[in-house]
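B., you asked whether I could sanity-check this one before it goes into the benchmark set. Here's the sequence:
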Amino acid sequence: MKRENVSGLFGKAQVGYVLIESERLSDWRRFLQNGVGLHLASESDDLLAFRMDGHQRRLIIRLGPAEDVVALGLHLLDTTALDEVKARLCERDIPFNPGNPPDAALRGVRQYWHLNGPKKLGVEFFTEPLTTDEPLWMLPSGFITGDSGMGHVAITSRQPEKMRRFWLELFDARISDAIEESIACLTLDITFLRLNERHHSIAIAATRGLRMDPIRTRIQHMNLLVNTMEDLSAAYRRLIDLGFGMAHEIGQHPNDKEVSFYVVTPSGFELELGWNALTVSEATWKPADYYGISLWGHKPRNATLGNFITTNAGNFRRGMKSLLHPEFSPL
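And here's what the prediction gave me:
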């Protein structure tokens, strides 16, 4: 007999940390400390950890070959929410395991649990972050975190229905809206899911028609929000001056109204740095459909014909290659 759902999870989960694996630690240090402007909390030969608020660690880069995000840490409100997530996983025969104490310390949490999520992205959940009152040394005035978490991730998928089910059924995500976007000869359907008042914590993109995945990494981009437009424009200039590739210049999205830019990280996926994204009022919000990812801006910085052909040829090649392998889904 199906267990009665005694505890809804909407509003009780948020993105708590992101774990990246890379062999380019020195580049990541320049990128995050000198470009984005985060507080470098810890550094060793095989690890970098960054702060943006009272959490001891928000972005962690460990030495390894993946050049990718390997885990997304979800901060759950309390032990009731934790027990509910565990029960839902057990009901669906999705295996999960507790992390060991050294790995918990690496992530800046008291304890965590790990499962293989969609596309084999590690989805980890915890209730107790390790915090500190030590002053922050950052270039921006601050980042938006709090009850809505530290940002969002966008993922391309050949099985978007299963990926949506994962977030809707396990964490009671809600659909905020959808965007249809045309890129080269492809049409993308993008669904935006919220876990709390943040407009979206997860965005899922799929090619219309033939389902292919043109992105090498598990995520297409991750997002952070700064406090002010001055913070955003200053980071934009710093990252260009440091020589990091700007995938898309400053622009504005039609659905969450966020003003942002996209920069290529040392591992090849993109970081979207944004400002002034709206929060959702559950009493009045109605999902909508939009056509085009931007109201204005977000143009490629290197918009030459040669770069356009090279980029899209590479994406098409990766997309066709993805058809040879099934996409992992825990559901």
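One thing to flag: The first strand starts at residue 13 and ends at 22. Otherwise nothing jumped out at me.
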